Input
Amino acid sequence: MCLGIPGKIIKILNDDPVMRLGSVSFGGVIKEISLAYVPQAGIGDYVIVHAGFAISVLKEQEALEVFSYIQEIEAIETK
Output
């Protein structure tokens, strides 16, 4: 099973089509992610990230929904 996590693009580091990189925030944790597979993505967009690669762009509402599910899981685990 693969797990993709949503993150928000906060900076484009390299806009070369093949080596496109961006800084992506995952709830405050910032990682450099390859954006080569999502050339249409820009600063402020949410992307699904798997193994260091953004694999799709998603709407902000969808990302926020995933974040709320993660918070629910965390709340259950701390009980």
About this structure: Helices lie at 60-77. The longest helix spans residues 60-77. The chain has one helix and five strands. Strands lie at 5-14, 21-26, 29-34, 46-50, 53-58.
